[in-house]
Write a structure and sequence with these properties.
Layout: H1 3-9, E1 17-26, E2 31-39, E3 46-53, E4 56-62, E5 77-83, E6 93-97, E7 100-105, E8 108-112
Antiparallel strand pairs: 1-2, 1-5, 2-3, 3-8, 4-7, 5-6, 6-7
């Protein structure tokens, strides 16, 4: 699991909990932006964005039928497994949460806190 690598990109200690709070699909799926939250043990939560540009061959799997609360907010998806892959479409990113799975080949990956 590449969560240690992701924590390193955030300049944060490894061993915390990652979650996805929102996903933005832009340019018909060519660009994906994930609004995320990292909660390192004993430290304040760190919000960040992970953006994939020049996406190709997106595979999306939904594992739970979400029921929106009355206020229409989405529940947070807890990250279960992550492989960041390799840019320039060499190896796809694999993301598994408790609600969805995603496999996508991408050109570049940016992580911004």
């Amino acid at each position: 699991m590449d969560t240690g690598k992701l924590a390193e990109l955030l300049n944060a200690p490894a061993g915390g909990v990652f979650s996805v709070t929102n996903i933005q699909l832009l340019s018909w799926g060519n660009d994906l932006t994930f609004d995320c939250l990292y909660e390192p043990e004993g430290l304040p939560a760190l919000p960040f964005k992970m953006t994939l540009n020049d996406c190709r061959e997106l595979q999306w799997r939904v594992y739970a039928h979400l029921k929106h609360p009355e206020d229409k907010t989405l529940p947070v998806a807890m990250l279960v497994n992550l492989r960041l892959g390799t840019d320039n479409h060499r190896k796809p990113l694999h993301m598994l949460t408790d609600f969805f799975g995603l496999t996508v080949s991408y050109g570049t990956l940016m992580v911004v806190s």
